[in-house]
Design a protein that fits this description.
Blueprint lengths: L2 E8 L16 H12 L7 E2 L8 E10 L6 H12 L4 E9 L11 E9 L13 E2 L6 H9 L3 E4 L14 E12 L6 E8 L6 H13 L5 H10 L14 E7 L9
Parallel strand pairs: 3-10, 5-6
Antiparallel strand pairs: 1-3, 1-4, 2-3, 5-9, 5-10, 7-8, 8-9
Length: about 260
């Protein structure tokens, strides 16, 4: 049974999240429905990560097992046809080994969070950014972010309902970038790790926003981390500014495309 890696882009706004749910629309459900238009008995797909309701993706990766061999380009074209009108696009397809797994073969997840820092309503970017009207000072935010890098117990920055066996994770990157756009200034958070806890990125961003606004000092973030207590976390920011930007593998299955 041939296995195919799918690189997927989607707008998370209409969905209850990635994971298939019985009574709510999901990205996984939309992709599986498109696959079953091609092969009625196509088994469930597996993804590199489960995004929450309202979270978007630029480079989610999933794998699908098919009954027959498909040309990768033809498979992507057929899936995109059947995915309409959902805001879900198959960007790339590659045939992979049977042992390759979208989740377990991955060694890195990359997230982007977009914060629009202006008073005027988001307008064209509504649903795609978190808007904060108060001017933010990026310097202290960067100073605070540095204390989060490395291997830590991130109990403070994970959701109380997180089902991970351990709160210990290694954060490889948390860069904060000021971006000037024709529609107003944005602050981008670039976050990378092998794996993340539930709500970890949104907890980081919400807490760092408090630093940028002057409500927290940079050292307060280190104290919150050391507390290992969810109550010590700053506010969790909303999901619409969060994007699963990409997934890293020891050998990129899409490199030849």
């Amino acid at each position: 049974m041939p296995r195919y890696a799918l690189k997927i882009e989607y707008d998370g706004a209409p969905f209850s999240g990635w994971q298939r749910q019985k009574d709510h629309p999901s990205v996984q459900g939309a992709v599986e429905a498109a696959l079953r238009r091609l092969e009625a008995d196509c088994p469930p797909i597996a993804a590199a990560g489960r995004t929450d309701a309202g979270v978007h993706a630029l480079g989610q990766v999933a794998h699908a097992d098919m009954a027959k061999h498909w040309d990768p380009f033809r498979l992507s074209e057929a899936l995109n046809h059947h995915l309409k009108p959902h805001p879900v696009v198959i960007v790339d397809v590659a045939e992979v080994e049977d042992s390759w797994h979208a989740r377990f073969s991955a060694h890195e997840r990359r997230y982007l969070f977009r914060l629009l820092n202006r008073r005027a309503p988001a307008g064209l970017r509504a649903g795609k950014v978190w808007q904060v009207a108060t001017p933010l000072d990026v310097g202290p935010m960067r100073q605070a972010a540095y204390s989060l890098l490395g291997r830590h117990d991130f109990t403070t920055f994970r959701a109380s309902e997180c089902q991970a066996d351990s709160p210990v994770r290694t954060l490889d990157r948390l860069d904060i970038e000021q971006v000037s756009t024709p529609l107003g200034p944005e602050i981008h958070f670039h976050v990378e790790a092998r794996s993340f806890l539930h709500n970890q990125v949104r907890s980081f961003v919400g807490t760092l926003e408090r630093v940028g606004a002057g409500a927290w000092a940079p050292e307060d973030v280190k104290a919150a981390l050391d507390a290992r207590d969810r109550a010590a976390c700053g506010p969790v920011c909303p999901p619409q500014g969060l994007y699963l930007a990409g997934v890293g593998y020891p050998q990129d299955p899409f490199a030849a495309l």
